[in-house]
Predict the 3D structure of the following.
Amino acid sequence: MNTAQIIHELNLIFEDVIDEGKVELSLDTTAKDVEGWDSLNHVQIIYAIEQKYGIKFSLTEIQSLNNVGDLVNLISGKI
Amino acid sequence: MLFSSLSFFIFFPIVFILYWSLFKYRKAQNIVLLLASYVFYGWWDWRFCVLLLLSSVFGFFMAKSIDQTNSQKRRNLLMTLSVIVHVGILCYFKYFNFFVSSFVDLANSIGWQLNFIPIKVILPLAISFFTFHILGYTFDVYQGKYRSSNKFIAFITHIAFFPQLVAGPIERANHLLPQFENDRKFSLPKLEDGFMQMLWGFFKKIVIADGLAMQVNYIFANYHDLNGITIALGIIMFTFQMYCDFSGYSDIALGCARMMGFELLQNFNYPFFSQSISEFWRKWHISLSSWIQDYLFTPISFKRRNWGKFGIFYAALVSFTLSGLWHGANWTFIVWGALHGLAIGYELLTKKKRKKVSKKFNPLFYAVTSGIIVFIFWCFTQLIFRAESLHHAWGMLQKLFTGDWLAKPEISLTMLLWIAGLLAAEWIQRHKPYALAISNTNFIFKWSVCALLIMIIFSSKNLNNQTEFLYFQF
């Protein structure tokens, strides 16, 4: 699966969990750039990603993410 | 040593001159700061210094051992040992009597006949702050966020650094430690800005917090004999006393550190303009709430992520209850923390519904109403926080609702005017890091304002009647 496909699917997951309208992520996007992406729903987003791809993250992995690019790399490494 | 004491007014200029006169020798500067910090801390009781030094040395070597081992089992073991030792020390000094006496009370209530004589333990000042600082560093090294420090003097100095030692901000090693490992440059604008933030902190502490303290103490001690409106105003006054006391301390700490070329974490960001409890906690004691978020809330919610939103509700409740307990060994703090956990959990579960409701109202009306509700909830929980016991809080609440609300309030109007003035200044300056951040304005204007504040502080009768910073007890 390529990066563009993962980002497209992440947009849908973010829109569903955050429920703040359309989300357009890029590799450089950070939590500050997306309205409603806060610590309270970050874990829910991570769980939705785990369910979608049938993968598991560790706490250290999710705490070391700096932007969507890191998240995409993490997902690609596991699927 | 109190920031607002005469000793500090002699201590700080000496340290400042000595520190900057060694600007070419970073290591010597660090040693000056290390010695100054231990003198500052030992001013209360020299025995405290021993515990601080032992905790710092233990933290340094444990993080190093964790970093140097590749075996995950060994890393887990060392991390667990660190938690046991640091939390164990904290529990012994702070919570031992509380836990045992609570257990004995519970046992007696079910018919067991147990006796407990509390042991005499001195509570070392700042223990909760430096324990969290060191534990946060160890966790970060354990999680591989960054490598352990090799610079022993820089490390123990950054833990003991006197502006932040006693009541925070609870620093993160990756923010403060590199500042000790690199050269600091003398900067006149920073010096001026630091001085202004210190001045603002002294004003909030000496003029407002200490001015409110006497009336608040009277109202909380004599609520039986007071009318409802006086009690209500007393609770509001305590809310502002706590804010001015604690945020005043933080301003002094940040300003003092900036004058020596360091930047500490922002600890307050105009919390009284928040429209939700979650927002309030992003603006109140920020260094503690972000610590709780990173090391308690996120791990717990991650572990319970398959519970959906209830997992986050559970994580909020547990984290905030523990943050309440961090403040002290009393059921009032635990209930206070749990109430905030419940409020945040409620906000999370009703986020979508509240958003829909908000669209039916005028945005300004909705914002103001939300702000008022948040303020009332905060004041209500501050009553529990300040009370000696849950029984005391309950008694005050009963009297608050049954007492006369139409009677004349028995409080000083001057202090209410100071509070109004403070809020006005904060609203005007709400996009600045602190309300007296005016160093970029006209020379005459800024120094006239500073001169006026200095005159107000020195003419305040509170100067001779100061109280300790409230957060020192935590």
The two ends of chain A are 8 Å apart (CA to CA).
